[in-house]
Amino acid sequence: MTSRRDILRLSAAGFPYLALTGIAAEQARAAAKAGFENPLAPKKPHYEPKVKRVIMLFMQGAPSQHETFDYNEELVKAAGQKVEGQNQKLLAPVVEFTRHGKSGLPIANIFPHLAKHADDLCLLNAMHTNSPAHPQASIFMHTGSFTFVRPSIGSWAVYGLGTENKDLPGFVTMNPVGLGGAALYGSAFLPASYQGTAVTIAKGQSPIENIANAKLSAERQRRQIDFVQQMNRDLLAQQKVDNEIEGLIESYELAFRMQGAVPSLLDIKGEKPGTLAAYGINDNPTRDFGAQCLLARRMAEAGVRFIELNMGGWDQHAGLKARITANATAIDKPVSALIADLKERGMFNDTLLVWGGEFGRSTIEQGPGGDGRQHNNRGYSMWLAGGGIKGGMRYGSCDVSGGAVENKVHLHDLHATILHLLGLDHTRLTFRYAGRDFRLTDVHGNLVKPILS
Amino acid sequence: MTFWRPLAYLGIFVCLAAAEDKPTPEQVEFFEQKIRPVLSKNCYMCHSRQAKSARGGLVVDNRDSIRQGGESGHAVVPGKPEDSLLLKAIRYGGTTKMPPMGKLSDTVIADFEKWIAMGAPDPRAGAAPVAYAKVDFDKARQLWQFSPPKAHPAPAVKNKAWAKSPIDKFVQAKQEAAGVAPVADADRRTLIRRASFDLTGLPPSPEEVEAFVSDKSKDAFAKVVDRMLESKAYGERWGRHWLDVARYAETMGRTRNQPFPVAWRYRDYVISAFNQDMPYDRFITEQLAGDLLPAPDTAERERLTVATGFLALGAHDLNEIDARMYEMDVIDEQVAATSKSFLGLTVNCARCHDHKFDPIPTRDYYAMAGIFRSTDLKNGLRRRPPLNQLYFYPEMLMRLDGKEAWPGKPPEEVAQIEKQYSEMSAQMANYRGPRNRPEAREMAVKIGTMPLPQNLAMGVKEASKPQDCQINIRGDAHSLGDKVPRGMLQVLTTDANPAPAIGPSDSGRMQLAQWITSNQNPLTARVMMNRTWQHLFGRGIVDTPDNFGLSGSKATHPELLDYLAIRFMEQGWSVKKMVREIMLTRTYQLSSAHSDRNWESEPDNKLLWRANRRRLEAEAIRDSMLAVSGQLQAAPPESSPVYKWRRFGEPARAAGQIERWDMTQNYRSVYVPVIRNAPSRFFETFDFPEPSEPRGKRDVTTVAPQALFLMNSPLVETQARVASERLIAKTKTDEERVRRVFQQVFSRDPNKTEIDRTLKFIRDTMGSVQESSEGQKQQEAWTRLYHALFASAEFRYRS
Lengths: 453, 799
Known about the structure:
The structure holds two protein chains of two kinds.
Chain A: H1 22-34, E1 53-59, H2 73-78, E2 97-100, E3 105-108, E4 122-128, H3 134-143, H4 153-161, E5 171-174, E6 197-199, H5 218-239, H6 243-266, H7 273-279, H8 284-302, E7 306-311, H9 320-344, E8 351-356, E9 360-365, E10 373-376, E11 380-386, E12 393-395, E13 397-398, E14 404-406, E15 409-410, H10 411-421, E16 431-433, E17 436-438
Parallel strand pairs in A: 1-7, 1-8, 4-12, 4-15, 5-6, 5-7
Antiparallel strand pairs in A: 2-3, 4-11, 8-11, 9-10, 13-14, 16-17
Chain B: H1 6-13, E1 14-16, H2 25-42, H3 63-68, H4 85-90, H5 106-117, E2 133-135, H6 137-140, H7 166-178, H8 188-200, H9 206-214, H10 220-230, H11 232-245, H12 264-275, H13 280-289, H14 298-307, H15 323-343, H16 362-373, E3 375-378, E4 398-399, H17 411-430, H18 438-448, E5 456-457, E6 459-462, E7 469-472, E8 480-484, H19 509-516, H20 524-537, H21 558-570, H22 575-583, H23 596-601, E9 614-615, H24 618-629, H25 651-664, H26 681-685, H27 704-712, H28 714-730, H29 734-746, H30 752-768, H31 774-790, H32 793-796, E10 797-798
Antiparallel strand pairs in B: 1-2, 3-6, 4-5, 7-8, 9-10
Helix pairs in contact in B: 2-5, 8-9, 8-10, 11-12, 13-14, 13-19, 15-16, 17-18, 20-21, 20-22, 24-28, 28-31, 30-31
């Protein structure tokens, strides 16, 4: 058993789907010889994976399923009536729906671009989760618990699989939202190597903490690093064997490479004008999320294992129609462009896209003019797309009270399914801490088999 | 790391409860034909141990559970069909109609009635989820960790010349048995640097090093140790170790990350307790029951009040909807913090079921929980307050009677402030409008930004009416079982260590403290000596310092730990005396040199054949840079920046302020505010523990963001620049400068190669920089050198 004290960040061999060449192979050999273990080195999954990476689009605030991806005919029929025990009336969708694609999936008209990919989407219409409060539910969605501080799903994925690009972090979250804070991408008791790296996508802000030196040119900094690395190697030679010093030497090289790799990763100047336009980078409403989507594709290409995109502002207790329309517009074109782009590059089938909020909204109306909906964790919608997933499918349904009734999927089940698609058995991906083995799904979670292709 | 095989050991002291009533063959037949198939077909999907969650807390797949019932009561009362809720539900008679998909046939319902009337004979094994196992405590108490430390004579060793103390002999005997030999002793420069980091968290000054190197007296090292133990920096270093264990933080964390504006008083209390070498048994007692100890004066009363802050620092979910659940979560956190930090036990595992590995039944958990249920938490924060706006209420803190609430303010002004506060509070409490209205927020902001009285502290006090806890079945606060009298863990309670009687008006905290600090408690002294050993050697004798249970690591030197524990108690629980005793051993003073021969057979160095090279903690790295640059501010700050933040807006904003604080202020790192969910980025990068649970052992990782920090952070650049300015002002020749830099940063002189190489680096840098004047070039070159050395392995490790 490897002690956590010995955890070092070094490249090593062992991933069957990646050919190691050049420096990586050399380092791998050196590492294997010295008995190092790089926690981020690609690791073998439990079984053949369906996808190599996950792109999670987190919509904080709890988007309404009734105005997005869950067209509920019963609700339309019963609209205006009261449900037993409730004073407010049932509210029909405040936006129109149209059926799309060969599958005829009903998708709200506020998503005209995404609708073109209807046959790729697997709508989970009977999601349910444990809390109707934003912070708890957001944390639960990411860690499977809001009772304790637990690792984020992205940390678990990188813990299980390592990552493919030795110059970049394995788990990246862009513009993380406020509620829940660092807990949404924290590694909790897993080693710090697995924690998500928050990347800020905003003008004039450093994307990663200390990623650039304000004063020194790369050349001058390299001279300084060469000097210190020589001292470090001397110390290592004197010690003969020291994994930690070896790891430290490598950490400087990686950091230096990251300094080079991150700016070029984030630099979208080389993208074709058509691509930028497709993602909506040039238009105000879509600029922010468009940039996140485009960068997600670039990170996916670069081999980042778990990529999270964030957008807040879905908590529509009032002003539902106008606000959800604006939100939909902000993400519609970018997400649609991301799907198309991944397909064009032959990456769609080894990527899993997960879209959703921390819970959903009520079937009954709320707020002034009845143009709003309350929180609802008993039934809501998310969607998946990409490898290993049946597209053009609706799975599960809710009754008019808003509760999931048929083919229910709990978040633990979704977590189990996401790990499964990555080739990880959620019951076997464990970490021993404080005297017991922990896992993302705790003692819960069942694979949602009917949606797997 | 070797773990015990807990399940194998479980067999030692656990035997299943014996079956009671035995059904006749006819009754079994009736059950198997008429009852079991119906239960299995219609009920198990929601009400069995295999079900995703047992609805309503009801499980019907075994005899005990079906009788025990769920949240609503007993499902089956043998012989009493009318009292059996299950029958009522299947008759569709009340609000609960089961099974939900359709009423069972009348014949089936009649069968159930008949079955219950005949006494509900049930051949299925009884396996109620709670207290199903009986622990054989006598057997459990024979295990090492559950029996009191035994005095072991120092073992015989072959090489009589090596050991300097009995501690050495315990170490040496194991080495000799394994065929490894200790390496040579550390040189003096290494030794003083090691001692300085271990005791103060700071590097020794070049002058201190020279004084020690040239001190030829026999007790030269003892003098160094004594001087450092007496320095204020010792408490700042060892106090911080304890703050890790005490999950110290200055905000609530979790969902509503509200501030603890006066948590820093507890921090200062801990630092001063270590500096005064407060006997550890007293230290425990003060933290658990300081409010109940006699105090000769108000200053002492205040100190004792602040001490109980230990129990008030927990991270809770202020947005928890369920009040009873919240109450039990608070209690659970106190049980966990108390048992992990003082006893090295994970008692909280027994909240929902008997402990899976250790002899701790659920009953024991609730016995301890009752003590905290009878204790009022005063952390200043209210769960789900009106309008969800203002969580902090000064009246929900402890008041320090000796301190003035408003020092320097005239009485009229004080009266005015107090009047205003109570008016605004009342206004807020009576507000009935929607909570999203701007005026609601404004009101909260107004109250939240009022000046804060200066006499507040976090802590606990006795509840007005002590109450025992009922077992929460499967940890569900609404599913109540037997009431358990307040008390102690049975496995650690013996004739020698009896559980003190808890009076009807006592919470039991004082008795808990007495019982924990008894010389006959098997764990208390061992756990603390293990923590001490870990801080001096890098690894505890038990490698899981917060878990001495059967799922923790096995002790590498159990007899040695017993020896230390007994010495500790004999020396009046003095931590300083034990630290000194350990540091004066030969084992502590070994070099960290490699040995091929030893490394082949024992690479992990569990046998301590050399000193462990250890990465410095986040705090020591930052403080050392500040010390080298001469910028470290030795005097502590008066309170904490959190004192001013009674109301958090966005946690992100708070994080920004903290970051500026630790990057711009030059106080020692122990004073950098600890914000849950938004720790100092620097600390986080260097493995500062997530402070929501006791963490007696930090991770040590080596990751690229650490390198990025040391390469690019303005903090490092600034310290390098300041250090270089001072260097140039104080020294004349370049060679003198190189020596001085090495002495400052590494506590040693450079060798010939290093001098040449460094001078070349200086020349090259000066030749390549853009700065105009010669002086600026020089300044820049030496800045680059300091910067490089701050980033080096030698600086980051203590060897």
